[in-house]
Amino acid sequence: MPAEPTPSPSPGPLPAPSSERPLSSFAIDVPETLLTRARNGEGAAFEQIYRWFERPVFTLAMRIAGDRDEATDVLQETMLKVLTRIGDFRGHLDGSGTPFWGWLRQIAVNEALMRLRSQRRHEHAVEPNDEHLADDRLPPPPAAADAAALGRALAQLPAPTRSVLWLYHAEGYTHEEIATLMQRTPSFSKSQLARGSRRLRLLLEPEQAHA
User: Fold this and answer.
1) Element spanning 41, H or E
2) What do you get for the CA distance between the two ends of the chain, in Å?
3) Which CATH class is domain 32-118?
């Protein structure tokens, strides 16, 4: 497996859902025939899956971990787990309707957050008591911000705040889902989103002024 993701063709994201939740970069429609070949141990099939998902996994890991080496490790561990567990995925077969990309994304998120917890980066993130900050209607980061500027701004935020922002705005998780993933409360997620969104806008304003 390559150490870091390289650009490669992908089948593209699925059509946008009717709801207002953002469409995840993981939303790639993987043909059942390809999954069957991968379950049967065909290396070329898994290599194709790896190529399609390496960039979404790496990007998510970078936004949560904030470090290229950590993100590379998350990518490798995630895809190793996908390889060894792909036979357990039954989304379409057991009637649950879980797409393969959602199953793979869950492994990536769990791996990234597990590493974050193991490094004790959450120990200074306290539970909020200011519910007035919890506004679900907060807009995402300014569309005018380019990827590089956004990456620099996100890197300046505390890891828990950065994780909430990315999981909510980029991946479309709800506050309840984020709370479960991060072993926190929905209020924690909402407060981190509000504070992080305000801080991010302040950080991006100088970038835009000099653009």
Assistant:
1) none
2) 38
3) mainly alpha
